[in-house]
Amino acid sequence: MTATTAMPGVVGSKGAPRARGPREKLMSRTAAMLVMAVFTLYFLVPIWWLLVASTKSPGQLLTTPGLWFADFNFIENVTALFEYRGGVYWKWLGNSVLYAGLGGLIGTLIAAMCGYALAKYRFPGREVIFNVVLGGVLVPATALALPLFLLFSTVGLTNTFWAVFLPSIVSPFGVYLTRIFAAASVPDELIEASRIDGAGEVRTFFTVSIRLMSPALVTVFLFQFVAIWNNFFLPLIMLRSEELFPVTFGLYTWNSQLNQIPELRSYVLIGALLSIVPLIVAFLALQRFWRNGLGAGALK
Amino acid sequence: MTTAPAEIATRASGDRPAGRRRIPVRHKGAIAVFIVPFGILFVLFYLIPILQAVWQSMLVVEREGTFGEATEVFGGFAQYALVFQNGPFWASVVRVLTFGIVQVPVMLGLALLFALLLDSPLVKGKRFFRLAFFVPYAVPGVIAAIMWGFMFSPNLSPFTALTQNVDFLGADLVLWSIANVVTWVFVGYNMLIIYSSLLSIPTELYEAARLDGASQWRIAWSIKIPLVRPAILLTAVFSIIGTLQLLAEPQVFASFSSAVISTYTPNMTIYATASVPNSSLAAAFSVVLALATFALSFTFLKITQRKDAAE
Q1: A29 and B270: CB-CB below 8 Å?
Q2: In this predicted complex, what is the ipTM?
Q3: CB distance B150 to B156 below 8 Å
Q4: CATH number at A87-299
Q5: pLDDT of A96-152, one tens digit each?
Q6: Is the CB of residue A138 less than 8 Å from the CB of residue A174?
Q7: Domains in chain B: ranges and CATH
Q8: Which chain A residues are Cβ-neighbours of B124 within 8 angstroms?
Q9: Which of A11, B130, B192, B270 is the most buried (most CB within 10 A)?
Q10: Are B42 and A294 within 8 A, CB to CB?
Q11: Range(s) within chain A of domains with CATH label 1.10.3720.10
Q12: Which chain B residue is nearest to residue A139, measuring alpha carbons?
């Protein structure tokens, strides 16, 4: 990462035509920094605005300048949000954590077992399975929502927790990534040694191999977590009962009632802020795991 | 088993390409324990729904009265004939294509520019910029659309001087306001993909050019961009797929703007049709959209590969 950054003044310093003097260098650098600064504003101002808006009383939202604080009303806003309609926002947050957190964990484990078996054992049908799964990677989540709805309505399970949870735990991308990673990072010798020690195959996976695969597992979990957390079509088409909504979908339903119930506006804003803060923190803290996954994606 | 898939497997997994003799399969039980859970879920929630949707798209619904019991009979390609006559659906396809032709190049152009700047010696504070540009990707599409919907609104926006004079949510501009939301969320993500690819280029490649006095721009144009082409193509294919599948952002904007009708994008049309409920027509829309998505990404890849071969 730092390899290319260490030589700031090197351009044009040796054997360069005289015309490219320090003045031009300074101009390029200023232009580059200016571009970066302008776009930093573009990317961060909306979030800053949301942060500021969530500290204002509903009345001041419209009457005070949007990008700076007025009276600090944050605590009152949060309390009001959590009390609104018997604390349904809490319920939504909990649902999202269940769908995305638990779903992501189970999905990662199941994908890892499959990817590991595909990488480490030879058996007939292995390539067929892998190629079918690879085809699954290319199917976007939105394209599956309607087919899943049709399936769940034939068995009468729409508008249930399972209608969103079960489809979410299937991660073909996870199988793809863990297969590559297991092949590269779990040595056959280690599995063999474990066999000699008398451990069974499944036990070896859970005690030895899974640890060696942990960086890939974190990456798969992140991708899966975000995919479930952001999935909109599935809850939109499956769920009718408010108490089953994930938080993004719940906020969407409030937002679409704004014309009838204007006081929802400040709940939407504070709710949106609270729902993205943990995500932003997790993203930034785990950024290197993203890069792993993106690298593997580009490897294709 | 067969040679063609085996070749893919060795490339993907780095196996030894050793001779494949028939060896008796060992550890059958363990393999089953590992594969079966994913296998069942994949069959239940990928294969069966897709097959069922294709089947459903072949059915014609007959109802006795408006609320009568529905009977479904096999109708062959009858639904597909309806799909091809459906004006709003094709209008929505044209709309997302227009969107994609403008938004995808702008977004990827910006992502490439930022990745190159981060990789050049011109920018200081790379770590900060990398994080700052990536932050929007952590914001779910629904929330991003809600935020920008308020930013564009004539009375709540912090830039009311602008939004009271330019109607960002009107029929003329709302498509591009939605394009702005999508761009805002995904530029940093695509930047990171291209940037990772830039980091994997060995620096020796630039040194000769530097000694010859090539400028940063020249190095970027003649060396870096050609080498990160595969990463750019990858992001382009994902973006094309994403554009055709557009749903959350316009669905949210529908509550800010009356110009966003219920058939604004193909997926919104599918949702609206399924809510009627007309499952068969919705399924036929889905199949057509999935095929179109596949065909468009495939064509894009073919065209760019042919260009590679010609060069």
Answers
A1: no
A2: 0.85
A3: yes
A4: 1.10.3720.10
A5: 999 999 999 999 999 999 999 999 999 999 999 999 998 888 888 889 999 999 999
A6: no
A7: 81-310 (1.10.3720.10)
A8: 33
A9: B270
A10: no
A11: 87-299
A12: B290
